[in-house]
Amino acid sequence: MVKINKMFTVKEIKFILLIIFSVIAAYTDYRYGKIFNWTNFSLIGIGLLIAVYEHFLLNAVAGIVVALILMFPFFMTGGMGAGDVKFAMATGTIVGGKNLLLILALSAGLILLYVLFARLGLFKIIRNSVVLLWKGLKAFVRHLFTTLKISLLGGRPFFGYAIQGVSGSLGKSERKKKVKYGIFLGLANIIFSVYYIMQQGGIL
What we know:
- The protein has helices spanning 10-32, 37-54, 57-76, 82-120, 122-152, 158-170, 181-200; strands spanning 3-4, 8-9.
- The protein is mainly alpha-helical.
- The chain folds into 2 domains: 3-120 and 178-200, no CATH class; 123-170.
- β1 and β2 (8-9) form a beta hairpin.
C-alpha cells in the first residue's frame, strides 16, 4: 500500500478529498440550491485518476453505472436535480459500486430521520431554538455599541435599545428552505469516509 509522507495511504487521501468535496457540495446545495459542475467534474476526474493509479478503474466505472441506474429515474421524475446525479456518479468513482450502494442507503436513512424529526416536531423545535438564540445574539451584539453610545449621550437607556433591537430581530419571518438531496448524500459520504479512515487507522 502506497503511503503519502508516511502518514496516509492513497486510499485514505481519496476519502479525505471526498470529505472536502462533500462539504462543498452540501453547502452549495443548501445555499444556492445546486451542486456546481466544477465540484462534480473535479471529483470525477480525481476519482478516475486515482482509480487508474490503484488499478481500481473497473470499480470506479461500476460506481458511475450504479449511480446512473439508481438516480436517473428520480431525475426524470423531478425528484432530484442533475447535480445530485452527477454528485452520486462522482462519489462512485471514489468508493466503487458496492460501497456506493451503502452510501445511498445511508443517505436514504438520513432523509427518513429528517422526515421523522420533522413530523414529530423535534426538528422544528431544535431549529427554532438555535435560530432564536443566534438571532438574539446577533441583535444584541449589533446594538451593543450603538446603544451604549446613545445612552451615554443622554438618550434612551442602554437596555431599552438593546431589548428593542432583539425583539425586532426575532420578529422577522424566516424564509423556508427546501430539503436538498445533495446535503444528505454529502453527509452520508462524510460519515462513510470518516468511518473508513478511522477503521484503517486502527481506531475502530
